[in-house]
Structure formats: structure tokens, C-alpha cells
């Protein structure tokens, strides 16, 4: 039978893995090898993908991919005994874990030798937590694959060394299956390779995590293993002789709890013991002749070993790879049909083609003798080696008890409740963002207004006063008031990521995403796009298929990032004042963004990116309670970026918009207006009527001045294009200014509208009122609820910010993809808004 036929709750043993290419290689390296036990947990709400448990971790596969895996049902009598694998061994004493104390006296840091340490491990193993604890950096820690989307560097001073720590993306193996994995292997084996690799593994999932450790050892790299999450392992009360496993693998192993920093002192002591010239490393692990850690040689069996030996000799003979460890690892990679190694041999060595021919001959011989692929035999041998080592050192319990993760997944991935729970969480997130954020927003709003009044009162009239009050305070202040909503939004996103729920959302959405032309893994970058499109674009590296990556990048700008939130809050608050109406409007905009993204993806997949369909293989990490430190780091990092944008892009844009709206000064028209004001003041009219006429004259002049200003002329040029959407020239100016950053739309509105009247000190409440009362030349209101909604739609869909376009061009490998995203989004925004507005006119 195949794996897809396995009923929910049933167990089986893997007999054979079918398929070909990258998918087969990835699935083998994740532990789907002959003889491994696997259990079907349950189906996604749409019956696809399927949730399985293998090697003590959870993974999801699409049904059609599971059909390629042949299994044999596991009868109840075949299952292991509940009490474990038989040993009466006592538990080893718990190790004493100490936090890391950084070296003081950094003034002498320039004289210290530097050790470059690469952090490497599976996704969700706690690598970035170690990086943050050790270096004091503030990287986001998420409980799903793809958080670290590029290498981050930090450093500490410890034990007489400057330790430079490089946090690499999480990976299951060193096979170049995705751009991240290719980057990792190139980095750790390239000319600027690190001095040491710190391999972080999840102690609760030894068998799967140790696969990467073996690959690192086979490359001859100096490796220290951090046995992370050791507190969770201790709670399981299982026997684990990790010092013995350390000696079997020839690699130091140190228990740690990275999220709290426990064990890091011993870990970095071990790291320093492996520094060049230091001879304090464990003599049972150290090879005195080579001056390095003892190498690891995995036996690949009587069929493969002669082929590996033969190819190894040829590699040493026809290349400069004379080191036996490097030559052997190259031979193994050749047998695995590693395209990156093949390319390097062909480009660097004249006899590279000969080596590939020798490899092809060996594989042909293997196919005739065993009818098996070398990569499957190699993966089987590695997992066999791991199983043998763990049998001697580790005694797992087989209690049969369901874990907390199992019980939670029964609810949140249930076929009936999965989707409603997801939609309810999203709706609750947006409601809290709008409703709870209103209170601190009002306080900041009041502070901005008071600041404008105070500054305006102490400065003399003139261009400088107008610049400070109308340009800087009104522009930047009009955006900074939305900081509470930004913080609340990121708080919710961080909670979903760190808890592990985000991976479940991708699981339940995969079939729907697949039908819409997107990969299941695309869902995580799309959700991240609600925060900021730039890191979301970078996180598409977790998607192995280039075509799927490109499609995801191109539709990501339709996800409503936090920069658009101030526009939504301003207009929905002004024209949909009832809280439930504003919440509904906000939710509909996010939902429309998602629908436009998936429809665009469907269009792109059926035209430009036809043909490729990459399997969905994704780990579902165990649920973990998010730490306050991790949440605060994530929220503070994003809030800081928002505040930095206040002081750079938005400040510059506000000043530029003010300048273009302030000049030319129209002195002749001003003089005429002043004469009329003086005439009114000298008249015998009642004071109330006098003030009304003066206000009318001031307002008429302000409108005339804005229309004749630089920005007004730009707006009038764009008006014929946007008039069919219900927009006037002022809205056109705001749209043009938003090309730099979407927050600038609100600051531009603040400058344009608050600059048209009394003091230029109105904040959000006054700005909302001014927009509600704004009239066109024919006396009709400039803004109506439908115009406001259409304007928000346009801001949602049109031109991504400059930073997002740069990120798309960089990640896609060519600027033309960024240009395509800009043109496509603008055209689509105009079309959608035209349909919405004109339809509303027809319906009355």
C-alpha cells in the first residue's frame, strides 16, 4: 500500500520511496527511509495535505506525494513495548548548566585574536535564540522554517578571544535543494569559511537532527554540537549517554537551553578549546597527528564503498583536492548527483568531465547490480549509522501518551474547525489592532496637536515656522500617531509565529493555495507581508522552486503591510465612524488583498510561469510558549524601523511635499486677498458674519494657492487619469507621494489639507473633519464613503514601496521583476478601482 492510503491513527513501516529528482532527495534526507516507522495523524480540512509523525517530529505531505511512498502496515504486535527498548539503565546525572558571562574590558578587544563561528542547524532548533543570547543581538525568533533569511553577524569577547558569530539560515541538509542551502554550503566550504561550525540540534529530535551533523563531519569541518532544549529533554526522563555519543561521532556535545542562556558558558569554553594552537580538547575526540578533531568515516556498505574509494582516488589524481576527507566527500556528492559539485569540477578542472563520466559509469553499474539509486543507499546508510549510534547511547520511552501538540492540533487543524479558527484569529487580530490601538492613538494625537500649538506660538510668522509646524510636525506627527496600531499588529504576528501556529496555517491552507497557483509554503511569507513586505520577500527563499518563489514575490505587495494601516485607519475612522463598520472595512481590505494575490498568482502560473509543480513538504514544529524576550525583540525591532522611517523617509517626504505645496508664493493673489480681508474687517457687519467672510476668503485663497503650487500642478496633471476612479488632484498628489513609502500618503494629506486653513496645527481629528467637509468646484463632496473606500483600495493595490521593489529585484536576480511588479500593480489597482467606483455610480 502507499502512504496516502494509511488511515488516520494507523502506523506503518516505510518500504520504498518512489519519485525522482530534488523531491526524492529531500524526502529521504528528512528521514523517509526504508524501515522507519511513520504514523498518519490526520488530514487537513480540505483533505490535503496529510499530517504525519516520523522520527519524533511532525511533517505534512501532499496526498499525491504520499502516494509515491510504499509502506507496510505495522501490526499492533510489531509495535515496541510501552516501557521502552528494554534497558534498566539509570538516568545519567543532569548536567550543570551555567549562563554565559561575557568578558569585561572590551577596550583591549582590538588586540584579541578572532574566531569565526558559524551557527548551523535544522529549522526550529533554537539557533537564533543562541545567537541572541550570546551576542546580545535582537534577531527575530520564530517557530517555523525560514525565519533567518540571510546570514546575521554578531560578536562577543570571551576567554581571550573575539568570537564572531554568524547565524546562518536553518537547513535540514547540505544538499543544494534551495537557494539558502546552496548559500550555506558555499559559505562553510568556501575561501572565507568559518574557523568552526557550531551545530545546534534539538535534543528531543536526535535522529533527524544528527543527519546534518554527519554531513558536516564528512566534510572534515571542525564541529561542536549544542544539545539544545535540554530542559525539555530532561522532563521526558529518557536515558541518554551523550558523552558516549560524542565519542562515537568524534564531536564535542554540550547540553544547552538557548532561550535562557543556560549551558552557553560550557559551550563557548569547548569552542575555544578547538582554537588553533590550543591543545586542551578532549583527547578522545582529538587527532594529535592531524591537529584536528577526529574525522568520521561512515561505512556505506559492500556495494557503495568500492565505488566511493575508486572515485576518491580519481578525485585526488585529477584535482587539487588531495586531502583524503575532502576527496571522499566530493566522491560521495558526485554519486548523489550534486549539481553544484558537478558545476565546480567542470569549471575548475580540465578533467572534470572525465570525473563525471567515471561517476556515470559507476551509477550505471549500480543500477544493473542493485536496481537502486546511489542517493537512496547513501541516505539509508547515514540514518543507519545514526540509528546504530543511538541504540548504544539513547533509550527512548514509548509511553503512547498524546502530547500537548497532538491535542492542540486536533482542534486547530480539524477538518471542520480549522478554517473558522484561522479566520476568527485573523478577525480578532484586526479588531484589536483597530479598537485597542485607538486609546493610545488619541493620546499621541493630542500630544502632536499640543506640540504644534506650542511651536507655532513661540516662533515668528514666516516660511521657517510654516515648515516646522505644517511640514515637519503635521507631516511626521500625522503618521507617528499610528504607532500603537503597528505595535499591536506585530505583537499578534509574533505570537502566531513563535507559538508554532503559523506552520499550521500553512498546512490547512495548502490545498487552497495550490488551487490558486501558490505553493503551501508561500502562505508564511504572505502572512509576514501583513507586517512588512520587505522581510516577507526575503523569506521566500524557503520555497525551493524558483518559479513558485517568483510568483510569491510578485503577488506579495498585495498583502496589506503595516505601512498602509495609517491610511486605512484615517479614512475608515473618518467615513465609517461606528467601530464595527470600521473593523469590517479593515478586514475586507486585508481579505481583498489576499484574493487579489491568489488570483494574480493563478494568472501568472497559467501564463508566464507554467509547468512547474513543487511538492509540499513542511515540518510542523511542536507548540512552544513564546518568551516575553522574543516577543519584545520582534515588536521593538519593527517599531524601531517604523520610528527610523519617521526620521528619514517620511521626514524628508514631508519637507519635500511642504516645499512643493508652499511655493510659488502667489504674492499678487495674497495681496488681493489681504485687501479684501481688510475691507471686511473695516465694514460694519456683525463680528460673526465678519469672521465667516474672512474664513471664506482665507479658504478660497488656500485652495487657489494649492492649485497653483508645484504639487498642485503635479496633481492636476494626474487628475485626468484618476478622475474615473472618483479622485481629485489632491488625492492624486497623495498617491504620487506614496511611491516612496505608503506612510507618506497620510503625511502628504496632513500637509495638503491642514495647510488650507487656520493654523496648520490640526492632527488626525481635524484632518478627518477637513476631508469630510472638503468640496470640489461644483460643490459636491470630494470624499464620500465609496470614494474613501476606493481610495483605500488603490493604496492597497498600487505601486509597492521602493524598498519592496528593490528587494524583489535583488531576490529575483534581475531588476526587471521589480519593474514588472510596479507596472502590473498600478494597472491592476486602476482597473479594480474603476470597476468598484463606476459600479457604485450605476447602483446609485
UniProtKB/TrEMBL annotation:
SUPFAM superfamilies: C-terminal domain of transcriptional repressors, P-loop containing nucleoside triphosphate hydrolases. One of its GO terms (cellular component) is plasma membrane. It is found in: Cell inner membrane; Cell membrane. It is a multi-pass membrane protein. The chain crosses the membrane at residues 416-436, 467-493, 550-576, 582-604, 646-663, 786-808, 815-837. Keywords: Cell membrane, GTP-binding, Ion transport, Iron, Iron transport, Magnesium, Membrane, Metal-binding, Nucleotide-binding, Transmembrane, Transmembrane helix, Transport. Its main location: membrane. Gene3D superfamilies: 1.10.287.1770, 2.30.30.90, P-loop containing nucleotide triphosphate hydrolases. GTP binds at residues 121-128, 146-150, 167-170, 228-231. Pfam families: FeoA (PF04023), FeoB_C (PF07664), FeoB_Cyto (PF17910), FeoB_N (PF02421), Gate (PF07670). Residues 114-277 form the FeoB-type G domain. Mg(2+) binds at residues 132, 135-136. The keyword Membrane applies. InterPro entries: Fe-transptr_FeoA-like, Fe2_transport_prot-B, Fe2_transport_prot_B_C, FeoA_core_dom, FeoB_Cyto, FeoB_GTPase, G_FEOB_dom, Gate_dom. GO terms for molecular function: ferrous iron transmembrane transporter activity; GTP binding; transition metal ion binding. Probable transporter of a GTP-driven Fe(2+) uptake system. Belongs to the TRAFAC class TrmE-Era-EngA-EngB-Septin-like GTPase superfamily. FeoB GTPase (TC 9.A.8) family. This is Ferrous iron transport protein B. It comes from Porphyromonas catoniae F0037.
